[in-house]
Each structure stands twice: as structure tokens, then as C-alpha cells.
Amino acid sequence: VSCTRKGDRLLEAYADGELDLVSSLDVxxxxxxxxxxxxxxESHRALRSVLTGAALSFEMPExxxxxxxxxxxxxxxxxxxxxxxxxxLAAAASLPAVMILxxxxxxxxxxxxxxxxxxxxxxxxxxxxxxxDHLTDVPSSDQHTxxxxxxxxxxxxxxxxxLAGDGYPLAGGRLDYLNGRGVAVLVYERHRHPINLFxxxxxxxxxxxxxESSLRGYNVIxxxxxxTSYAAVSDLNVAELRQFKEDLTR
Amino acid sequence: xxxxxxxxxxxVVLPHMRAAYNLARWLTRNDxxxxxxxxxxxxxxxxxxxxxxxxxAKAWLLAIVRNVCYTGRHRAPEATVxxxxxxxxxxxxxxxxxxxxxxxxxxxxxxxALADLPVEFREAIVLRxxxxxxxxxxxxxxxxxxxxxxxxLSRARTRLRRSLRERMExxxx
Lengths: 250, 173
Known about the structure:
The complex is a heterodimer of chains A (about 250) and B (about 170). Helices cover about 45% and strands about 20% of the residues of chain A. By secondary structure, chain A is of the alpha+beta class. The longest helix of chain B has 25 residues, at about 145-170. Chain B is elongated, with a radius of gyration of 18 Å. Classes of the chains: A alpha+beta (about 250), B mainly alpha (about 170).
């Protein structure tokens, strides 16, 4: 006799992580005593992990973004392809405006909780790093180049792990400013989606609160470990970002 | 130091262009149409940007991309799933213990199986598993009730699973 709950949408919603606490507990109680439904949930998870692991996203063609920008009304026909040095100067010049914008964003969000404010800062920093052509200060895929680069620039020495074997090539490192202090940012890539990993020591004895959140289309995962606070942000979906965290902390 | 609407648009909306292209590429199933869709959707988005009251810019942009795909000349020339989703729900086979089998599906096979799904189902899988949207965000993009989003997604998975199983059992030709 087949379990009547087998085709239940709630099982799928549970596997998708979409249920609230009470419903999740209810489903878990059922799964503990129903092998059939437990297998169904496993199967949902298997399909999900196959799909999310397969990089089914199409790369945007070179030049499309430039054409879209150029077609927008009021477009200054600015040369997007600036020489490298020019890009650095432009990034430096736009920094004050960007900082004011970031401050305005924080103020405009009507005094959110400290955690929400931190997520806002993290996502803003991530977006800024993509916009200003300023993803890395030290572009290198070699952990032994990136780690020493931070020496003397911060009051701590970040651990730089090589995750290329797990499918996350290192793109480089960067200094950033978060929560009122200088932090290290390691930039990894997953199927060419950048992941910004912020890390800083818990010098004030208050490690970051572990949490996952989603903001303006970006996912953020925060955690702390051995006296260091971490925050990973990316446009990768949350399952992939969780996997990154797992691979990193393994 | 006021930002102009254009600057704000570039900062808030354009970072999601990659997702916009990906959705358009999956819905139209070819690169040229997808690029046209992104161009047109971006212009529309810019025009409507005054009405964007904050919130999820990605879902907002993807909703426009989707509308351009379905209403414009890029409309996919294929039959849509017209039958009543609620009535036809019951016959769905529940998933079996095929996790191991699935893990052997190649990326190529997944791409083909997904591309062959009817557009509504393809869209559901792409929004959820490729773009990582929540049910709520999917409802926002598709303008459908959450219950319908869930039932579509569930049926899409059943179909995809069946298609993959057939492809794998067919073995390499």
C-alpha cells in the first residue's frame, strides 16, 4: 500500500527548503517513519543537485552589455573599453560617489537591523566590485601570491585556500571596508560567476551571526569559524553557494 | 551628488543582465533572439524604471524579459501546455530511487532534455534550478499564484526526470 503523502507537494517544497519551521518539523516527523516518502525526498534532492551542479546557464555573449548600454536613452557614448590604467583611474575617481551612494542606500533602508545592514553592505560591496571594474587588487590564481599581498595592508593575515580542484578557481584578492573595518576579500569563480568571500577576525569577540539571506538577486551566506568571520556573496543560487561554503570549510 | 535615473538603472538593474540573457536564451532557444529580447527588455525596463519601487530588481527584470519573450515576435513557435494543470496533476508518478542513475547524466544530456520540455516547464526549471529563485520570486516573475508555481515546477521535474530516464535507458546510440 502506497503512502498517501507520497505525491504531496509539501515533500517537494521541503526538499526545496521552502517550508517554514513548523511544517518542516511535521514533514521530518513523517519522513522518520515513512521510507517511501524519505526516498521521494532523496530523489528530489538528487535531481536538484544534478541540475544545479551541471552549469546549465548560458554565458552572455561578449558585447551585448555594451550594446544595451549604448542603446539606453541619454547614453553618453562612453568608451567602455578603457585601457587598463584608465580603468584604475576611473575606478579611483568614482570611489567617493560610490561611497556616498552606499551610505545613502544604508540610510534609505530605514534603520534595518545590524544583520540586515551588514548584508546590505556586503551586497553593495559585491556589486561595486563588479561595476567599477575593481574585482581584484591583486589578480592572481595563485594562493601564494594572494596571501602575502595582504601583508601589512591589514591587521590580520587571511587564510587563502586553493579550491581550484573543487571547481572554484581563485581570481584574486582585494581590500574592502565592511562594518567599520578593513576586511580581506578573496574572489573565487564558479562557472565564471564571481564569488566574493569577505573575511575578518573577531577581534571584538563578536563573530558574525551565521545566516543566509537573499538581497536584490544576490545570495549571502555568513558564518564564523576559528575566530574568523566569513561572508560569501554571489549571484550563484543558494544551493551552489552553500556548496562553496561546504567545500571551503571542509 | 545626485545620481541620475540612468545611473541608478545601471547600478540596480544592469547587474542582472546575465540572468536576463540566460532566461531569454532558454525561452527562445537561440542566441540571436535571446540577444534581441535582452535589448528590448532592457529598453522597456528603463522606460518603466520610474515605477520600480525597489525590491527585487532581478525578479522585476526577469518578468519583463519573460513578457517580451511571450508577447513579441520572439514568441516561441510551439504549442503551449493548454490543458488544465489542476486536473492533470493526479497521474504524476512519484519519483523513484534513481539518484545514482541521474548522476550519470551528462551536461549535454541535461541541456537537451531541458530544451525539449514545453516552454512553461522549461521556464519553471530554469528559474528555480539555474537562476536559483525562491517560489515567491518565481511567482513574482511569472505573475502566477504560488500554488500554480509549485504544481508547474513539480510537473516539470516529473517530465524532466522521465525524459532523462528515457535518454539514459536508450543508451548511447
